[in-house]
Amino acid sequence: MKNIHINEIKAFVKDAVIWNLQGDTTYRVYIGVLMLFIAGGAYAYSVQFTYGLEATGMSNIVSWGLYISNFTFLVGVAAAAVMLILPAYIFKDKDFHRIVIIGEGVAVGALIMCLLFITVDLGGPLRAWHLIPGIGLFNWPTSILTWDVLVLNGYLALNLLVPAYILFCQYHNRKPDESKYRPFVLLSIVWAISIHMVTAFLYEGLPARPFWNNPLMGPRFLASAFAAGPALMTVVLLVIDSMTVFKIDKTIFNKLRLIITVSAIVNLIMLFSEIFKEFYAPTHHSLSAVYLYFGLDGYNSLVPWIWTAITMNILGTLMFAFNVGKKNVKMFFPASVLLFTGIWIEKGFGLIVPGLVPSPMREITNYSPTWVEIFITLGIVAMGILVITVLIRPALIIEQRYQEHLASKGEEH
Amino acid sequence: MPKLRLVTILLLSGLLVLAVAPALAGHGIMEKVKEANEPFDSLQIDTPLPKNTVQVKEEYQGGAFWVLSRKDSIGRFPCSRCHGKKKSFKREGAALAHGDIELVHGQGEERPECKSCHNEKNLDLLSDKKDREIDFDHSYQLCGQCHFRQKSDWVGGAHGKRHTYWIGKRVVWNCATCHDPHSPRFKKRWPSTYSLPLDK
Amino acid sequence: MKCDRRTFVKGMGLTVAAGGAALSAGCSSMPSSGEEMKLRFHEYFKENYRLMTQLEKEQTVERLARLAKLNHDIDVQVGTQEPLEQVLYGYAFNVSRCEGFMDCVTACVKENNLDRNSKTQYIRIFEMEHGETDVGSGDGKYFHEVPVPDHYYMGVQCFHCESAPCIKACPTKATWREPDGIVVVDYDWCIGCRYCMAACPYWGRRFNWGEPHVPRAEITKKQHYLGNRLRNKGEMEKCTFCIQRSRNGKLPACVDACPTGSRVFGNLLDPDSEIRFVLKNKKVFRMKEELGTDPKFWYFID
After folding, report:
1. Looking at the domain A35-403, which fold is it?
2. pLDDT along chain B (200 residues), means of 10
3. What ipTM is given for this predicted complex?
4. Which residues pair with A210 in a beta bridge?
5. Is B200 within 8 Å of A61 when comparing Cβ atoms?
6. N or C: which end of chain B has fewer CB within 10 A?
7. Can you spell out the DSSP letters for C99-118?
8. CA nearest B174: which of B166, B165, B188, B162?
9. C217 and C199: one domain?
10. Measured between beta carbons, which residues in chain A are less than 8 angstroms from residue B18?
11. Cα(C165)–Cα(C198) distance, rounded to whole angstroms?
């Protein structure tokens, strides 16, 4: 650490930027498309900013919609990085050690999306400074939302700093000092669990909403996250494997498959347990579940979504369980997409909207997002993907160079 | 090292107590209500006594209270202006002046007639079952002879309405401010507004 | 310490953007004058109401009145009346008396300057069939002659819970219980996350999804900072027991307007009050008592 000069940091950042600006036509088109979506989102947000949240499909009954749904799901994706960090740093798994940086990049992207989704959901985004401890008034420890602000930002910092330090050392062909970053890695493991548990507690802690007021919420969040997150990782790794020079070992996919299969099965068992509770002895508190799965009083906009989600969920789980990618890892692609999308629908829309419907006065309204919400959502997702790309590209180049450097050093000796 | 562990345990249990204590304290609203037995100075805000108010001949738990006058809201009071020496109490009167009155009050044998309440000797007054004279402004005395439960609720504050202020001298509406004595049930009518269907 | 903090906030603000302030708070249109811009700037950086000194309260109230003049060309008085000593408000609703006329709703909308565009209402009246007690079985959207035979009516609004889940939920302490028991919102401190709305088991809170609109002639001018003053889009609001009235000794507008005397309001700490009489002599119940919210709103039956 003593030798770090401002110039070294400058060079590191400069190269990272340059590597991101270089690329072939495919890469440029890809970035262009992302930028287009981001611009669309920015325009839609300007509309929402001018007219207020009136521009969305939300109402006094369904007061949270697409934004908070996506936020909830993406917290899980971010937390799932722990499934790579744990084996890589703690069990010293060589395969995972190579790709853990990608996992951390995905986590950072997911966190950025989470924070953006929260921001666009605010009625007074310019007053967000009221949330800053010390300057504003932070209702900690009473409000679970303040816990979420803390854990999300903390996790973002951890996932930025540890990889940045490691990459910075590797960029300068130095061996990262493990004693320096290991405490932070350990912290980030606990932290990953906490971000998802705290997010679950946001909902779990509301007796007003019986559909959410359910102690299985936290554990189920984790199970679904540990299935959906690694499924997303599988997709990202398959893309990297086929689109770049960075090749991913088959054993990695097989290890990821184990994690996904176990988590997805646990998730399905918990889902079954919830469904059993709601429908074996239905009470007034089961109305949300009735609305979700079968529709209530003629309102049934979520019914096709949830059954599609459950079908995808089961199909994806089965494909992983029966190891469709045994011969060809590319077969993991459809399985991952199925599982990921299924969980996305179920844990996003399928969790948030029925929690609010029917209202505490048992009034029902259908919710469908407006174009503004959809454009903003797409814009944020594009932004997230851009962040992930921009982080992972230089990271992979640095890793590659460092490995080559180590190899050449080995030859010298 | 053991010291550190002790500190951690203490800290954690402290946090737990902090989080759980408010829930266990159970100092709910009813405890606060039960403990509050000191008289409250209701006259700390000097609320104006409306014109046309008379002091009720009884007291409520907080002492004297006032009721809106009835006489002032009867357009042609005093009745003796028309009902002078020449009595026109029965059929002709109804046709002349009170044709709009429909007596829908009580059922069966309990059903009152005009003279059940109006004082035949002096139409500026009312009279109860025992022929005691009752002033129009104190009609609660009359109504209360049958509707004694409503009356005790009215005196205490569970029936009827307070006038404008919750603090200060207690002024309440009289029975007839709300109820047409000849037809005391509220008339059916359309609500003054409606709630929006909540789906967009 | 506090001074430092404020200075920091203001300094930060100056460097960040005066334009940001201009867009803030009410921000549907750009301020039309330098004066308005200055007012909005100060409004943007003001404190949470509970931390304001008396002077700061007076200053913000003055600014708000001036902004109302500039934006709506009306003269409003925004009060900051403090709670009365030894007062804790309570409310009782006579289920056997209410006939569903909804005069309370009309009075509430008028008194509290509720948004006419979205037809915001704090009070809901549910038409319930005899034999049912769950408010969910009732019809809150009826519009026909009332009362309907074999039905009764149940009013629902904010219950000003002693142990209010909305207060616990708020991340910025923008909503709290005043010493006289009224649960209020500092509209200008609310960031509009709507967590309180999700936390309320009584559907007691309303959000300004768009810019609220009240026709100029219908604006109630006697206002309170925590009560019926004009709100902006993106802010949460709710029933305040008409704080601008109750703190001046008046009954809330709904109680005053009720033609059947179904609504009883008063001081729970006054053993001689009407509300105490109801609690003592009537069979009362509270909605969803099992949730432990401890509402200060009782239903009773004659």
Report:
1. Formate dehydrogenase/DMSO reductase fold (1.20.1630)
2. 63 63 68 94 91 95 96 87 68 67 86 89 92 95 95 97 96 96 95 77
3. 0.94
4. none
5. no
6. N
7. ----HHHHHHHHHTT--TTT
8. B162
9. yes
10. 141
11. 9
